[in-house]
Design brief:
Blueprint (H helix, E strand, L loop, with lengths): L2 E7 L5 H4 E7 L7 E10 L2 H8 L10 E2 L4 E8 L11 E3 L9 E5 L12 H5 L4 H10 L9 E4 L5 H13 L2 E6 L5 H7 L3 E4 L8 H5 L4 E6 L3 H10 L5 E4 L12 H6 L3 E4 L2 H25 L7 E6 L3 H8 L6 E5 L1
Parallel strand pairs: 8-9, 8-11, 9-10, 11-12, 12-13, 14-15
Antiparallel strand pairs: 1-2, 1-4, 3-5, 3-7, 3-15, 5-6
Helix pairs in contact: 4-5, 4-10
């Protein structure tokens, strides 16, 4: 019986209260399965929702934490011919913060070998979300304006870079002035500070052009400002809720500006899109990572033994992803 390390929780709660680094039994691949060894995993906001019990899809307890990581196939079960040992793949989503895990070979998502391990580690949730927000929600013409909050988040950084490559212009809301320069360096057209009253000057920012798409992952006053800034017939897409503040129902803007409110959840979208739709989006993401169009920064890397420090770091103001490696 081979033991391996895994970051687990036996109840729902705050990560630092319920997570533990444990020894668990390493699984052997059964018929039609492969075993994948983790190369690098990430920490996502949705990880906290799953650990805390508030996410839209929860695991049975006890559970290994973590949703996203990249690994390499190290063993295959009988009957597997579609993937071989050494292939780089998405680590099984059902618990990414462990050294190895088994999965059905039919569910394997291959990762191009010419995409770096670090970029591949956080390629499965935030970049495809950004791509779908820009390509699947509203039919945007070249030169269209896109507004987003949490401009320094992983999705926000991807939106800035992707939008520039797609010919769209962006306004990014942030909370810290020191973020303005690095976001503009990535290609942001305008960066505005939350609470500064920027929405009243939105026509000056866009030269009078209407904003057709607003991307909301925060909620509260930040989301309300977006609704006020949208042009006639504009759409706000909510895909996250980083604060628990209520959003005042925008009756006036719904009536007089015909503003539309929609939601997006990558997990649901990818399931409905099926393998063909998923592969189309991921191929686009990897093409941008390959040619340098999309490059997300790494804030820090921690070992499994340092998971508490990694989580504390992740919850502080930062500019980039926090990685976990065995």
């Amino acid at each position: 019986m081979i033991q391996q390390k895994a970051i687990c929780h036996h109840e729902f709660g705050q990560p630092l209260d319920v997570l533990r680094l444990e020894n668990v039994q390493q699984a052997e691949p059964q018929i039609g399965e492969v075993r994948v060894r983790l190369l690098a995993a990430t920490i996502n906001p949705s990880d906290y929702g799953m650990i805390g019990g508030s996410y839209g899809r929860l695991r049975e307890l006890p559970a290994v934490a973590g949703r996203e990581g990249v690994g390499v196939v190290e063993a295959i079960g009988r009957g597997v011919t579609s993937v071989g040992v050494g292939a780089r793949v998405r680590f099984p989503e059902a618990g990414a913060w462990q050294e190895t895990a088994c999965m059905a070979a039919d569910d394997v998502l291959l990762v191009p070998a010419d995409v770096s391990i670090e970029q591949a580690a956080f390629s499965f949730i935030n970049p495809p979300t950004a791509y779908c927000l820009l390509q699947k929600m509203v039919d945007l013409a070249p030169g269209s304006w896109v507004l987003q909050n949490a401009g320094n988040s992983a999705v926000g950084l991807a939106v800035i870079q992707m939008a520039k490559a797609m010919g769209f212009k962006t306004i990014s809301q942030v909370r810290r002035e020191e973020l303005i320069a690095p976001l503009k360096a990535l290609g942001a057209d305008h960066v505005v500070i939350e609470g500064s009253g920027w929405a009243k000057q939105v026509n000056e920012l866009t030269g009078g052009e209407p904003i057709q798409l607003a991307l909301n992952s925060i909620g509260g006053a930040s989301a309300s400002d977006q609704i006020k800034a949208l042009g006639e017939g504009g759409t706000q897409v909510t895909f996250g809720a980083m604060v628990a503040d209520l959003v005042r129902f925008p009756t006036r803007f719904l009536i007089f500006n015909d503003v539309r409110l929609a939601g997006f959840w990558w997990d649901q979208w990818s399931q409905k899109a099926g393998a063909q739709g998923l592969n189309q989006v991921m191929s686009a993401v990897y093409a941008m990572m390959r040619d340098g169009t999309l490059k997300l920064p790494v804030e820090a890397t921690y070992s499994f033994a340092e998971y508490e420090a990694a989580i504390k770091h992740d919850q502080q103001p930062r500019f980039g992803k926090v990685l976990l490696k065995p």
